[in-house]
Amino acid sequence: MYGDTTRRDALIGMGAAAGLAMLPGAATLAQGAGDRKLGYAIVGLGSYATRQIMPAFAQCRNARIAALVSGTPEKLARYGAEYGVPATHHYNYQTFERLADNRDVDIVYVVLPVAMHAEYSIRASKAGKHVMCEKPMAVSSAECQSMIDAAKAAGKKLMIGYRSRFQPHNVAAIDLCRKQVVGPTRMIRTAHGFSIQPDQWRLDRKMSGGGSMMDIGIYSLQAARYLSGEEPVEVMATESTDRRDPRFATVEDRVDFTLRFPSGVLASCISSYSSPHNEARVIGTDGYIELDPATPYQGQRLRVRVKGETTEPAIDTSGPSQFAAQLDHLAQCILTNRTPLVPGEEGLRDIRIIEAVYRSMNEGRRVALA
Amino acid sequence: MYGDTTRRDALIGMGAAAGLAMLPGAATLAQGAGDRKLGYAIVGLGSYATRQIMPAFAQCRNARIAALVSGTPEKLARYGAEYGVPATHHYNYQTFERLADNRDVDIVYVVLPVAMHAEYSIRASKAGKHVMCEKPMAVSSAECQSMIDAAKAAGKKLMIGYRSRFQPHNVAAIDLCRKQVVGPTRMIRTAHGFSIQPDQWRLDRKMSGGGSMMDIGIYSLQAARYLSGEEPVEVMATESTDRRDPRFATVEDRVDFTLRFPSGVLASCISSYSSPHNEARVIGTDGYIELDPATPYQGQRLRVRVKGETTEPAIDTSGPSQFAAQLDHLAQCILTNRTPLVPGEEGLRDIRIIEAVYRSMNEGRRVALA
Description:
Largest sheet of chain A: 9 strands, mixed
Shape of chain A: globular
Number of domains of chain A: 2
Distance between the termini of chain A: 35 Å
CATH topology of the largest domain in chain A: Dihydrodipicolinate Reductase, domain 2
Radius of gyration of chain A: 21 Å
CATH class of the largest domain in chain A: Alpha Beta
Mean pLDDT of chain A: 93
Strand order of the largest sheet of chain A: 14-13-12-11-7-10-9-8-15
Helix content of chain A: 25-40%
Number of helices of chain A: 11
Oligomer: homodimer
């Protein structure tokens, strides 16, 4: 079985050539959306917002920076000047509600520490704005639900910033998995981690809601879910944290967690705040599909190994970056009235699973997922 | 920290150059052993014995084939002719005890289905012979203990056929781990598996004692132990077996198991009878040491990635193969009266951990190891 090399090669070729065009409905959405640019208010001018997100607007077809929100006047002045956002469109956390009156702002992008996601997403929904919120969505599934409820009550959209779903190598890998080019999936192995620097909000549980699992392990969790195309039914997890390390006074370091999917696929996942990892491998009966690195800001590589031969499908990366594609996607969903690929419900699913991971590692037992 | 690239490079270079010489005491043992060749009786003339082990004697300094044991007269005739073993040195399972009277036979190598390991190892010890037994050592820790007891009562040695401990890339990887060339170890990831063909003793629990975990998962378990240099204190495991697949009527297919070591290192291990895997990666704070493939009969590769740069240390493979080195090792231990690197107690340790893996996956909970 699976001996039809010609068909497989053809499929791999297709997957590669298709590139960004394989984004679910991306072309359709873009078409219906026309050229109108919706305005984003960027809430929180930290490193990720200023170095990754804001420069990406230059590539966007349907999104532009319309307003800035920060507690630091110097940042408002500096980035206002850099991106041409006038002082009338600068806000702080006390004047945040005035965004309601700014008709240039369609979407509020929450790029704050995790513990502030729910509050500012809900305040933005109440201000009548659509919301993009960074991942992890919030510190608890209850908070996630209240964010979903607030967006629904406002009749506005809510999307979570899962950039990898808009990254061409990851999109191509999903496609190759669905086409079973290495046979039916049997195992998934994915690991994400880095050696975290001390003295930052991520290491303060009150601000982050948790340790590596919330911050970087969520990439392993996401990869396992989008590469399998299934929802896990069971989780088993083990933690290892050196509490003498001052970085880990309140949050966990390493987590090894295993997800079982309905088809029988097992995903062996790693999350670490003390070792470098960034990879995902889908192992089928005949070989594997590998993203290594899988989810960096840039430089992903996709390899396919079937029956002892490794190929690296060419991926078209000439289109907009994952950051720009993500920004455009929400705008296009609003312009064409569609549900985003990664709505609030998707963020909630991850947080529910992360809560099960924590329960499993704390109680030393298998935890079933509803 | 760990920024001393020059020192690290030097260590990597050393590790590579040292090659087989790093085998614990190998040179010393070989020296003291002189040139005398001890005689092996090969028990069970299946594929592994005839294709891997028997051809390796040609490279041995202290070992030779002295006798053959098989239930199939045609095999005795064929391999007797091929290896110059006269009919006087052919045995079957009824005449096995007569090995006691054959002074050309020093060592009995048990290469039978796992369920027969204990019986024939014990019969060999009682016949006054040293024993080499294939892995997994036996179907239960109780059987392992009885094999150890029998060898001890006979005043003879017992070694388990862990060939990877004599394989240069694996030996070099162990050395690089001890020298912390990628910083202190934080995680280990290792996977072993293949798509098993139907209709063989490995798929009959009565003959094999278990499924993939016993047969191929044991390589992941061994790698985690010898690369960490520690004994696990805790195991957590998840199984996935499609019982509709006729291959898996009595044995398990996939097992994902996590070992926790006293230092806090976690080893994420995979065993599979339905997907191809053969790799081991030790992740330190600064990078990783990777064996990929890790434990095939030949073709291992060792890579070291530190601070974004990958190197492939040159390994001297001009010496005897892992099979020959293993055969010589037991002979040299006998000639110099030393304890083998992988005695019966080592086989027992693995079986105890495998029993804990089975308990964990069946009960869905963490299992502590004594």
